């Protein structure tokens, strides 16, 4: 049994030692916003925040992150209201098929916490570890730049 704190709620999970955080989130907790992509830590689809920083959940064992604060895409919205980054992705059509969106949004949210007024070049560098197969990234970058303006107003 391991204790995971996900999106502010503690979960006692019975899982084998070899089970990844991605598997536990999707299979045991039903949090399917975290996507399974390459299973090699390359695509970023499985990105979650651990202690506010982005990590690839396919590359970590669930037992490694006991007692740490884990945030999935489902945990960004509060009381039914989208987080400012999620809202910017909706407004600027930064979401195409949606497969990479959770990882992109979580990566962007962590990045904007550290760099609230980025340049476009800094945004491109920040999301360089997340692969989108649908777009040329322009709408994604535009969404993140829009989110940075929303954060300034918060």
Defining traits:
154 residues; single chain; 2 domains; globular; Ubiquitin-like (UB roll); DNA polymerase, domain 1; 5 strands; alpha+beta; five-stranded mixed β-sheet
Give a description of the structure.
This protein has 154 residues and is of the alpha+beta class. It has 2 domains: 2-76, Beta-grasp domain (Ubiquitin-like (UB roll), Roll); 84-153, [2Fe-2S]-binding domain (DNA polymerase, domain 1, Orthogonal Bundle). 37% of the residues lie in helices and 14% in strands. The chain is built from 6 helices and 5 strands. It has helices spanning 21-28, 73-76, 84-91, 101-114, 120-126, 138-153; strands at residues 2-6, 9-13, 47-50, 53-56, 69-71. A hairpin with a 2-residue loop joins strand 3 (47-50) and strand 4. The N and C termini lie far apart (40 Å).
């Amino acid at each position: 049994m391991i204790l995971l704190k996900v999106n502010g709620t503690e979960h006692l999970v019975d899982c084998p030692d070899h089970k990844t955080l991605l598997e536990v989130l999707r299979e045991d907790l039903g949090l399917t916003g975290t996507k399974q992509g390459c299973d090699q830590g390359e695509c970023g689809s499985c990105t979650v925040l651990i202690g506010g920083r982005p990590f690839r959940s396919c590359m970590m064992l669930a037992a490694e992150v006991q007692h740490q604060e884990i945030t999935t895409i489902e945990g960004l919205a509060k009381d039914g209201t989208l987080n400012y980054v999620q809202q910017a992705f909706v407004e600027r059509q930064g979401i195409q098929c949606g497969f990479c969106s959770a990882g992109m949004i979580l990566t962007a949210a962590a990045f904007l916490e550290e760099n609230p007024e980025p340049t476009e070049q800094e945004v491109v560098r920040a999301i360089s570890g997340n692969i989108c197969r649908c777009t040329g990234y322009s709408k994604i970058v535009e969404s993140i730049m829009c989110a940075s303006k929303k954060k300034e107003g918060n």
